[in-house]
């Protein structure tokens, strides 16, 4: 599709850190992460779930470490994972040290909850010794008592003050490989907090609307909150928090980035909601195609439109397109690179489109490989 100035998103300039092999901030792509919901001590179940989020495209995965059994399992988990592991630490500083020793690439902590300055210093030393970065995780639901007494309720000022207090703790220990999140389940509060924080620090920001809800409601709330910030150029890594399997969080995260033109992965399907004009069963066709095209990671676009009202126009901007011939026609038009090429029967549509997408992916990858040689 053509380039239009109104599509430009100017990303906030942040310094860059690393979570294992993944660069966060600066000019690095906005990364997508999720979190396991298995019992961490069950290493096999946790590794199996990590495999699924890896296949969905996750760049990073967070694993909760609430007890010694969990950190004991982390060595096997970190070794098995092909993406960096973030250890989620809430209170006990020893769990952070154990997770760093086990191979975690990042520690998600609330420095104010770790305890004394000496304990924080030990955690920072472990992070330095083992090449870990740190995420300062501020949450509206667990703000410090003194901030709640000062402000009376969670508000952007309280969220940012909490974050900056924790930044000071790390900076005092000469540690700068950190990123920050200021999450809330209220999208308005989260967006306002992130916007204020973005003005106050130069580190990367981790975006999320926490406890967003179920698959549909949580996706909508996350798209509004995270999308609002990304559109404003704020955000370097994202996690969509859903009461749904972690791999679904990853897919929604990529869909948010794709909708803003910030990152592409896999087949971006443009489809109509269907109506009486449709020449085939659009809804079930798209549902089947989404499932059968999951294995393709190469970025490309596909339009599936029920009739000729908008179909040809949508096909102009996609790599592959199919437009139904209209109710009762039994066939439709295939478009390649925006041009009408031939017609096929509706019954052949799914297999044919899957084949076209697989061939297009191979063609794109071959071109990239030749360019790289």
UniProtKB/TrEMBL annotation:
[4Fe-4S] cluster binds at residues 272, 275, 307, 314. Gene3D superfamilies: Dihydropteroate synthase-like (3.20.20.20), Sulfite Reductase Hemoprotein, domain 1 (3.30.413.10). Residues 14-253 form the IspG TIM-barrel domain. Pfam families: GcpE, GcpE_C. It catalyses: (2E)-4-hydroxy-3-methylbut-2-enyl diphosphate + oxidized [flavodoxin] + H2O + 2 H(+) = 2-C-methyl-D-erythritol 2,4-cyclic diphosphate + reduced [flavodoxin]. Keywords: 4Fe-4S, Iron, Iron-sulfur, Isoprene biosynthesis, Metal-binding, Oxidoreductase. Its EC number is 1.17.7.3. Binds 1 [4Fe-4S] cluster. One of its GO terms (molecular function) is 4-hydroxy-3-methylbut-2-enyl-diphosphate synthase activity (flavodoxin). Its cofactor is [4Fe-4S] cluster. Residues 268-358 form the IspG C-terminal domain. Pathway: Isoprenoid biosynthesis; isopentenyl diphosphate biosynthesis via DXP pathway; isopentenyl diphosphate from 1-deoxy-D-xylulose 5-phosphate: step 5/6. It is an enzyme of class 1 (oxidoreductase). One of its GO terms (biological process) is isopentenyl diphosphate biosynthetic process, methylerythritol 4-phosphate pathway. Belongs to the IspG family. Converts 2C-methyl-D-erythritol 2,4-cyclodiphosphate (ME-2,4cPP) into 1-hydroxy-2-methyl-2-(E)-butenyl 4-diphosphate. This is 4-hydroxy-3-methylbut-2-en-1-yl diphosphate synthase (flavodoxin). It comes from Rhizomicrobium palustre.
């Amino acid at each position: 599709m053509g380039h239009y100035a109104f599509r430009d998103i100017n990303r906030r300039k942040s310094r860059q850190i690393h979570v294992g092999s993944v660069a966060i901030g600066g000019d690095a792509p906005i990364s997508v992460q999720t979190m396991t919901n298995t019992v961490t001590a069950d290493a096999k179940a946790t590794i199996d779930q990590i495999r699924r989020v890896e296949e969905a495209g996750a760049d990073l995965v967070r694993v909760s470490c609430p007890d010694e059994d969990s950190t004991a399992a982390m060595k096997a988990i970190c070794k098995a994972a092909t993406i960096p592991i973030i250890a989620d630490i809430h209170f006990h500083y020893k769990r952070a040290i154990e997770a760093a020793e086990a191979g975690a690439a990042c520690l998600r902590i609330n420095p104010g909850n770790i305890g004394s300055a000496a304990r924080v210093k030990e955690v920072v030393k472990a992070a330095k010794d083992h090449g870990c970065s740190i995420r300062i995780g501020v949450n509206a639901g667990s703000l410090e008592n003194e901030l709640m007494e000062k402000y009376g309720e969670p508000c952007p000022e309280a969220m940012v003050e909490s974050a900056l207090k924790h930044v000071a703790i790390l900076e005092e220990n000469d540690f700068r490989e950190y990123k920050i999140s200021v999450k809330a389940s209220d999208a308005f509060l989260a967006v306002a907090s992130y916007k204020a924080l973005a003005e106050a620090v130069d580190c990367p920001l981790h975006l999320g609307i926490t406890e967003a809800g179920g698959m549909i409601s949580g996706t909508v709330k996350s798209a509004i909150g995270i999308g609002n910030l990304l559109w404003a150029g704020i955000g370097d890594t994202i996690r969509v928090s859903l009461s749904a399997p972690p791999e679904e969080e990853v897919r929604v995260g990529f869909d948010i980035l794709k909708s803003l033109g910030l990152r592409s992965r896999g087949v971006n399907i443009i489809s109509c909601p269907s109506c009486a004009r449709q020449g085939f069963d659009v809804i079930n066709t798209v549902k089947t195609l989404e499932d059968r095209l999951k294995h393709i990671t190469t970025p490309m676009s596909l339009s599936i439109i029920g009739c000729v009202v908008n179909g040809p126009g949508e096909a102009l901007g996609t790599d592959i397109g199919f437009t139904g011939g209209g109710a009762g026609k039994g066939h439709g038009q295939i478009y390649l690179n925006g041009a009408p090429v031939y017609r096929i029967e509706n019954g052949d549509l799914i297999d044919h489109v899957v084949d076209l997408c697989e061939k297009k992916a191979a063609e794109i990858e071959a071109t990239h490989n030749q360019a790289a040689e």
